[in-house]
Amino acid sequence: MDTTTGKRKRDNPSNDIDFSLLEELEKTQPTSETTIDIKTLKKLVLSFERKLKDNIAARLKYPDQPEKFADSEIELHDEIEKLKILAGAPELYPELVNLNTIPSLLDLLTHDNTDIAIDVVNLLQDLTDEDVLDENNESVQVLVDCLVENNVLESLVQNLLRLNENDSDEVSAVFGTLTSIENMIEVKPNVAELVCERTKLLRWIIGKIKVREFDVNKQYASEILAILLQTSVANQKRLGGMNGVDVVLQAVAMYKSRDPKSLDEEEMVENLFDCLCCLLMPLENKERFLKAEGVELMIIIMNQKKLCYGSAIRALDFALTNYPPACERFVDVMGLKTAFPAFMGKIPSTKNKKKRAREEIEERLISLVASLFGGVLRGSRRERLLSKFVENEYEKVDRLMELYMRYSNRVKEESERLNELELDDLEMDEDEKYNRKLESGLYSLQLIAVILGHLWTSDHPGIRARIELLLKQQKLTKKDVKNVLKEYHDNIGDLEGPDEKEKAQAKIQKFITAME
Questions:
Q1: Residue 303: CA count within 13 A, CB half-sphere
Q2: How far apart are CA 279 and CA 233, in angstroms?
Q3: How far is CA 324 from CA 114, 277, 281, 414, in A?
Q4: Is 70 exceeded by the pLDDT of residue 15?
Q5: Where is coiled-coil annotated (predicted)?
Q6: pLDDT digits (tens, 9 = 90+) for 113-144
Q7: Which residues pair with 2 in a beta bridge?
Q8: Which helix (H) or strand (E) holds 113?
Q9: CA gyration radius, the chain
Q10: Which of 39, 118, 494, 508 has the greatest number of CB atoms lying within 10 Å of its CB?
Q11: What is the DSSP secondary structure assignment for residue 84, as one 8-state letter?
């Protein structure tokens, strides 16, 4: 590594290659029909290294006379193309690594001729293709480890930054670069953090997302960004510090009053909302969201009742969870007036009429209301929230009990199904059973019980009477709600630390005690 420039020095690519051992194997040029074995691999590598050496020599001898090294460049291109056949024999990747070919290939990503660099991008895309991964994970792991050790991420992104997207071949190379990075993340998940630590990829993606016009690479950039953010708190914080929250908000704001024009554009918008939700995990990004008036924008999107309606609710759910300032802002900017019609089931029809999409909106709204009760604890805002459950003859309490029964029945059915599986000798531990119940709707049932707990402890006589009446009509008692709360209490995790777990359990215990 050149410490003055931060760039990898271009070593002589023939270093460490034992030509004497390989020359004996060179008799015929392999074709795409050639059976791939170690012997063929060595022929391919030897031929590639020779043409690379010829090209370097020609460029050094005639630096200002392109016509003198043009032929060697065409021959080098042909050799790189031939190496693509290796994607059909991933079991040979460890041998490819042992032949020390990878450094030579990666040096070409900085070749003065971008066509040669693009050839290498296409080769890397083929070698790491998802179809290759299916049954050859170990061999591909060896290759990806070697690529990363030889600075493939830095070289790929450095090349990406010089590509001209007005050229169709270079547009294709942008796609190939992103695909290669995605493929490597699939094999080696920590590549997601490494590529953000070591390169300017996040900066490039931000620039791409800022462009108003839609294209396929903007769509793919949004998809890669979602992948980079979904499992990495470090990346979420890093992007937040790069004004990423504001950039993503501006990108989705383009769709507040219009729908995407194609399925690809629609997918991009969903990717952007996925990014926004990931960004809203760390506390500091919730603060940035609030400062950038993200709460107001999501409410505007909801009011417009376009395709992004459900996505805006999802983003609000993330923003309000465990963050009282966002809950207070939501009440202040008339969010209750927007959210509660949806809570009552008045969800506008959009292109996405799938039953599951509507159910997800419903679940998000339950979570959002639970967050509001947890974040707005006193004063006029609390009164406004409680008044929603009093108005129109307690219709919101009625709706809450309707949801309680629906989710309770689902969980009951799942519990019975799990018990039957156990009778069939399919062993399942308690954690797995609990997770299965969560997937069937237990988490939403628990949040509904939490909301009922907040309503009960508000000491509003009318609300209490209504809850008791509705429970009685369903042949239930407060004990049934307490049982749900107890299970929730006992399974609260300590991801946020033991102190936060204790606080959360104390809140739930307060509801349980109040319902004695």
A1: 12
A2: 9
A3: 52, 17, 14, 34
A4: no
A5: 397-424
A6: 999 999 999 999 999 998 887 777 899 999 99
A7: 7
A8: none
A9: 29
A10: 118
A11: G
> In angstroms, rounded to a whole number, what is the distance separating the alpha carbons of residues 479 and 47?
78
**Taking CA 430 as the corner, what is the angle to CA 497 and CA 359, rounded to the nearest 5 degrees?**
80
Flag the least confident range among 29-43, 216-230, 327-341.
29-43
Beta carbons within 8 Å of 145's beta carbon, 6+ residues apart: 188
Closest CA to 448 of 439, 436, 460, 456: 456
Among residues 365, 320, 370, 402, which one has the least CA distance to residue 485?
A: 370
Which residues does 286 contact at the CB level (< 8 Å), separation at least 6? 280, 319, 323, 325, 326
What confidence tier does 35 reach under pLDDT thresholds 50, 70, 90?
Answer: low
Concatenated DSSP letters of 320-342: HTT-HHHHHHHHHTTHHHHHHHH
Estimate the crossing angle of helix 201-210 against helix 152-162, to 10 degrees: 30
Can you tell me which residue has the tokens 């790189």?
A: 80
Angle between helices 391-423 and 461-473 (to 10 degrees): 40
How far is it, in rounded angstroms, from Cα 165 to Cα 125?
A: 19
CA–CA separation, 376 and 383 (whole Å): 9
The values of phi and psi at residue 7, to 5°, are: -105, 155
Closest CA to 116 of 63, 165, 48: 48
Q: CA 377 to CA 374: how far, in whole Å? A: 7
Q: Given this model, what pLDDT does residue 353 score? A: 54
Closest CA to 275 of 249, 253, 298: 249
| The pair of three-digit structure tokens given for residue 484, joined into one six-digit string | 């749900």
Residue 413 CA, chain-centre distance (Å), reads: 32
The Cα 215–Cα 222 span in angstroms is 11
Structure tokens at 77: 């291109």
